[in-house]
Amino acid sequence: MTLALSDIHLRDPFVLPVPAEGKYYLYGTIGETCWKGKPRGFDVYVSTDLTAWEGPHPAFRPDPDFWSDFNYWAPEVHEWQGRYYMFATFKADGRCRGTQTLVADSPLGPFRPLGDGPLTPRDWECLDGTFYVDRHGEPWMVFCHEWVQVQDGEICAVRLSRELDRPVSEPVLLFRASEAPWAEGIRGGANYVTDGPFLYRAGTGELLLLWSSFSDGGYTIGCARQAEGDINGPWVQDAEPLYKRDGGHGMVFCTLQGELRLAIHTPNDSPNERPIFIPVEERDGHLSAFPKEEVM
Question: Which domain holds residue 63?
Answer without folding.
Answer: 2-293
